[in-house]
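To the wet lab folks,

You asked to see what we're planning to order before we commit. Fair enough. Below is the target structure as tokens, and below that is the sequence we designed to fit it. If anything looks off to you, flag it before the synthesis order goes out.
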């Protein structure tokens, strides 16, 4: 008997940023940079640790006004400056391991950053869509440029 497993569609967020793929890629792996830009709306401070190698782990601690939000995962693909793939586990994923793929696509003098977040519980999709959207806006600010839709 074949079992049919239904999965929720992935959350996909895209932004074109006036920066090189290399600069944007590096900002995803540098703990100091992550602590600056990986702060969705409502997060006043973040700190990060990163062992930037395939099989290495990362941890991002986001501090809101009343709560701390730990995030952790393991890098599966590090293909500079094209693609990052890593697991993402937090209270926001309801304890479920999820998968994030970040693609960096050159577009003239800019780069389209595409975040695809898979295996999220249905109740976590909207908050992660908002989080990745504001995160990419902060990444653009970090790189000194405005994100284009």
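Sequence we intend to order:
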């Amino acid at each position: 008997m074949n079992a049919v497993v239904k999965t929720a569609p992935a959350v996909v967020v895209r932004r074109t940023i006036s920066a090189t793929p290399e600069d944007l890629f590096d900002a995803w792996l540098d703990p100091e940079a992550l602590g600056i830009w990986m702060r969705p709306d409502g997060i006043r401070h973040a700190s990060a640790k990163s062992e930037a190698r395939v099989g290495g782990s990362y941890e991002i601690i986001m501090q809101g006004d009343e709560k701390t939000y730990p995030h952790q995962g393991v890098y599966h693909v590090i293909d500079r400056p094209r693609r990052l793939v890593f697991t993402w586990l937090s209270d926001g994923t309801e304890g479920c391991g999820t998968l994030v793929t970040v693609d960096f696509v050159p577009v003239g003098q800019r780069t389209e950053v595409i975040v695809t977040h898979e295996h999220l519980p249905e109740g976590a999709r909207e908050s992660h869509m908002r989080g990745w959207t504001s995160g990419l806006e902060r990444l653009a600010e970090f790189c000194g440029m405005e994100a284009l839709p």
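Structural context that might help your review: The chain has three helices and eight strands. The mean pLDDT is 91.

Thanks,
Computational group
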